[in-house]
Amino acid sequence: MKNFICILAVVLVPVFLNAQKKKPVKSAQTQGAAKETVKIPLTPDTWEFQEGKVSFLEYKGVSAVKLNENSGNMIYKNLNFINGTIEFDVEVNQAQPFPGIFFRWQNIDEAELVYLRTGAATRRNAFDAVQYSSIIKGVNLWDLQHEYQSSALLKIGEWNHIKLVVSGKQLKVFVNNPSEPDLYVPCMEGGIPEGKIALGTGFPGEAVFANLVVSPGATEGLDSDAGADITQHDTRYIRNWQVSKPDSLPYGREPGAFMLPKPEMTWGNIQAERRGLVNLTRKFGGSNYRRFVWLRVKIKSEFNQVQHLKLGFSDEIWVFVNQRPVYVDKNIYFQNMRKSPNGRISLDNCSFLLPLNKGENELIIALSNDFYGWGLMARLENLDGIEFL
Average pLDDT in the 75-103 region? Predict the structure, then answer.
């Protein structure tokens, strides 16, 4: 898994930096208790950044900081953020950068992220102008969280006012729109309770940030508990799998029937998270090379039948039923083999027929990955005569 590689005009790819010597931070605010609004100074002494690649300046009458494609991220040293409101202005002068703000930043491996895809400013009714993703074990889970995006009114060459309301598990994002949120996230998936605030912009282009204000504890009545998962009561999802340890899969090699797991294979267990997602990144982290795992589940059928299986996956799958191959597919972003929606994981990725015999059946899937998040979601059309073992 390549950590945060540059992707031209597609997805925010932050280049994380090693932290410089830290100053003591303010004590974390008590959860739910509003404290005094803090205007964050945009001055070199209060931020960790890459020397010589960040410009602190007066811009349009206000103190500002300018980041370009080589600046990486800059981290505010003097505040530990839990819940509250974060507001700032950002300006871009071309429709390419991906300016974003990290919060509850622990380190380069764990953070929550909201960013703008400013290329959407030139596309009418774009549905991906503002996006949320979590950073888990050093991996940006952009491709596992396509639900967390929305349209927004973005302006090029002018200030865009961004407001985040963070409360426990929930998040609202306002973009040039004080009356109602442009993006609502019912459950942030990073699982991080607190951390710092950081600014960044992806390749290519530059962005200017100003007027950064934090209001700790000011959650505007937003519930702190996770919102509803609409898949929770859908019993058609395959949620409990056995999983092998990851193994390398060199380019050009494909897992065929000759590679199926042997009886002595050691299996672990993994359960689907919200949205029916089997999150392999959370279990195994990232990697700089192509690798794969075997996923296995046993299905009991009361009679011979052919089921319809919908499958979301990242990045490649090889499906076997009772030791026989039944389906192969690829969802590879850079090779123009992207499944809808735009190479990101979804049940819209693919569907195919699953032949089941009367009695016990073994469904085995080889799942490879070398790009961003690694995961799978699977749902049968119905459960007539079906039992998951």
Answer: 92
Q: Is residue 221, in this structure, part of any structural domain at all?
A: no
Domain with residue 355: its CATH number is 2.60.120
CATH number at residue 47: 2.60.120.560
Those residues whose C-beta lies under 8 Å from the C-beta of residue 66, and which sit 6 or more positions away, are 54, 55, 57, 59, 206, 207, 208, 209
Of 66-75, 89-98, 150-159, 268-277, least confident by mean pLDDT is 89-98
Residues 295-310: tens digit of each pLDDT: 999 999 999 999 999 9
**Quick check: 320 and 365 in contact, CB under 8 A?**
yes
Full domain range(s) for residue 124? 38-216
- Distance (Å) of CA 25 to CA 47, 78, 194, 251: 12, 4, 13, 46
**Residue 116, pLDDT above cutoff 70:** yes
Element containing residue 282 per DSSP (H, E): helix 280-284
